[in-house]
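Field notebook, page 222. I keep forgetting to write these up properly, so this time I am using the form the group agreed on. The chain and the ligand, zinc ion, are recorded exactly as supplied. Prediction of the bound pose follows.
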Amino acid sequence: MDKILAGVARFQREVFPEQRDVFQKLAFEQNPRALFLTCADSRVMPNLITQCKPGELFQCRDVGNIVPPYGAAYGGVSATIEYSVSVLGVKHVIICGHSDCGAMRALLHSERLAKLPSVLGWLHHAEAARRTVMEVEPLPPEEQLLRALTEQNVVTQLTNLRTHPSVAVKMAKGELSLHGWFYEIETGEVYVLNESKKAFEPVSGNREQLVRAWQPGETLAL
Ligand SMILES: [Zn+2]
């Protein structure tokens, strides 16, 4: 805990004064560009990955970057989606999975979750992804299977996201775009779902497409 408290002290002493104007402007308003929904994993850092500043990303984090389908679970995730889309008017929702995801690995080995009933129940919202990748014969080695499951889970959660009325309404009006990402911890690479190709493509080789997706003036610092 000492390290964390020392970090707060350093933030107040060194970081905050340099950005005092930014924080004072944000004190009574926020206008985030996107809802960034990702895993609770400590190695995934949305603001660092995207280089977004305070106030630019509304965030929702849970084990496995899961979005329960509308009506399946009224809780923090559905409330965060509804508020950010309907009230804050975010124009983009990004669902971001990541490499070495413990939740996805647990989904491959659900027998290990006997003493974690909350996790087991939560991961049921990713069952379609698990079943989809387990249909492939012969099954690939564990690490390839994990990657395939994590990517498929992003696709599944985007499908679940579309069942939320707040999302459906904005999409019908052309006011909301959905994006699937995969973040690779060991390389820093971000892969973006190309839905027409049903493939995740690296941002570094896909810059123009991403810039278009984010609209002029909203581009990420790549
Ligand atoms: Zn994870």
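OBSERVATIONS:
- Residues 39, 41, 64, 98, 101-103 surround zinc ion (CB under 6 Å).
- DSSP finds ten helices and six strands in the chain.
FOLLOW-UP: compare against the apo run.
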